[in-house]
């Protein structure tokens, strides 16, 4: 689990609504001149697109028989997803192993503009073959400074992309006035308080905002605390009795992105919690409200693991393997959960966690694959 022994290849998921500047960011990152200016060697990067022809890179095919691989001038490998993601990753891996393509060090997957990135995350997590050789480093979402607000109003996919992000790149800030940018930044901060927002013009963004985020592998206590950013979320205390489903607009489909339906909030618990109770509460949420659970992260003081807080996170129904930290980041040993939900009553979530962690005391710890 420690970084030093993790030889798997990091995958960055680059997502964002149609035309929001994903390819522009990607093109910039693949340019050798960009890295020369930074006085850094460009990492060998394999790029996977899931939209044929959406990138105007000047490349030269190296494996025309399969029609999927290309060697880019910057030493990058590019392919379009043909079929599912797993065969594409296998093709790349075998080409790399057999020396047919350069030994890429990382992979960027650019999603289509209207894609919900969750199925890609699911593939990365559920395929044993993929998970043994790769890990998800982070989700980076581009948001158009000019049209982003309207897209968030009209398309729930745009909201999902923002809620699932570990970094938000606010693009085209050269085209928007300061007031529009400030308004959108504050909206993004309320939709996803944990994701730093970085302004970007013409794709010019520091690679440090894209690579090595370790968003799904927070094994260092202090970084895990920053990653959780619980202090940026509205703290919810107490809760309603569990009489309802917790769903606020049961008949309203999740097609529009009105911000009033999105809740970002945190819960905290003073005492250590039984692992089985935490697992059961989160399983229940995932089972009954998965579409409405856009993102969840937590650092939990588990009764059975004193002194070793457990990091958890989920995107919709997908729970990632839990990670035990070697120590707490500081003296604050309370369990903290942060949630971004759609039409899900925060008081209900609070009560669900409270009630499960008070009633369940023992069970093997296997739910989140620690
Ligand atoms: N002025 C300006 N134009 C930009 C910026 N970033 C991207 N663009 C332009 O916006 C348009 C869309 O950018 P893309 O990078 O193709 O966006 P995308 O998200 O990859 O688009 P799709 O793949 O179609 O979803 C292009 O014409 C870019 O040149 C920016 O920061 N400033």
From TrEMBL:
CDD domains: CobW-like
Keywords carried by this UniProt record: Chaperone, Hydrolase, Nucleotide-binding
UniProt keyword Nucleotide-binding, yes or no: yes
Sequence ranges assigned to domain CobW C-terminal in this UniProt record: 262-357
Similarity remark: Belongs to the SIMIBI class G3E GTPase family. ZNG1 subfamily.
Record protein name field: GTP-binding protein
A GO term from the CC aspect: cytoplasm
Function: Zinc chaperone that directly transfers zinc cofactor to target proteins, thereby activating them. Zinc is transferred from the CXCC motif in the GTPase domain to the zinc binding site in target proteins in a process requiring GTP hydrolysis.
GO MF annotation terms: hydrolase activity; nucleotide binding
Source organism of this protein record: Thiothrix unzii
PANTHER family per record: COBW DOMAIN-CONTAINING PROTEIN, COBW-RELATED
Alphabetical list of InterPro entries matching this protein: CobW-likC_sf, CobW-like_C, CobW/HypB/UreG_nucleotide-bd, P-loop_NTPase, Zinc-reg_GTPase_activator
Catalytic activity of the protein: GTP + H2O = GDP + phosphate + H(+)
């Amino acid at each position: 689990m420690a970084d030093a022994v993790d030889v798997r290849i990091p995958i960055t998921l680059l997502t964002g609504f149609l035309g929001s500047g994903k390819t522009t960011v990607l093109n910039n990152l693949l340019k050798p001149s960009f890295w020369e200016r930074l006085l850094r060697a460009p990492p060998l990067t394999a790029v996977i697109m899931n939209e044929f022809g959406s990138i105007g890179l000047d490349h030269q095919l190296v494996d025309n028989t399969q029609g999927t691989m290309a060697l880019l001038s910057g030493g990058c490998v590019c392919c379009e997803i043909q079929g599912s993601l797993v065969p594409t990753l296998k093709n790349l891996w075998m080409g790399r192993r057999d020396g047919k393509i350069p030994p890429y060090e990382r992979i960027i997957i650019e999603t289509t503009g209207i894609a919900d990135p969750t199925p890609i995350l699911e593939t990365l997590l559920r395929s044993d073959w993929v998970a043994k050789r790769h890990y998800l480093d982070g989700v980076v979402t581009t948001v158009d400074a000019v049209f982003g607000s309207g897209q968030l109003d009209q398309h729930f996919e745009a909201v999902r992309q923002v809620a699932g992000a570990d970094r938000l790149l606010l693009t085209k800030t050269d085209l928007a006035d300061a007031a529009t940018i400030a308004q959108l930044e504050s909206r993004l901060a309320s939709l996803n308080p944990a994701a730093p927002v970085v302004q970007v013009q013409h794709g010019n963004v520091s690679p440090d905002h894209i690579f090595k985020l370790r968003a799904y592998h927070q094994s260092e206590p202090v970084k895990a605390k920053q990653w959780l950013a619980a202090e940026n979320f509205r703290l919810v205390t107490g809760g309603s009795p569990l009489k309802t489903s917790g769903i606020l607009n049961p008949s309203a489909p999740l097609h529009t992105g009105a911000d009033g339906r999105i809740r970002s909030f945190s819960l905290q618990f003073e005492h250590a919690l039984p692992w089985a109770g935490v697992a059961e509460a989160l399983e229940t949420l995932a089972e009954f409200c998965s579409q409405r659970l856009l993102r969840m992260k937590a650092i939990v003081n588990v009764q059975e693991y004193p002194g070793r807080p457990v990091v958890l996170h989920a995107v919709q129904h997908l729970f990632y393997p839990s990670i035990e930290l070697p120590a707490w980041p500081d003296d604050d040993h309370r369990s903290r959960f942060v949630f971004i939900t759609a039409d899900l009553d925060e008081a209900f979530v609070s009560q669900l966690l409270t009630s499960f962690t008070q009633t369940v005391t023992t069970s093997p710890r296997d739910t989140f694959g620690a």
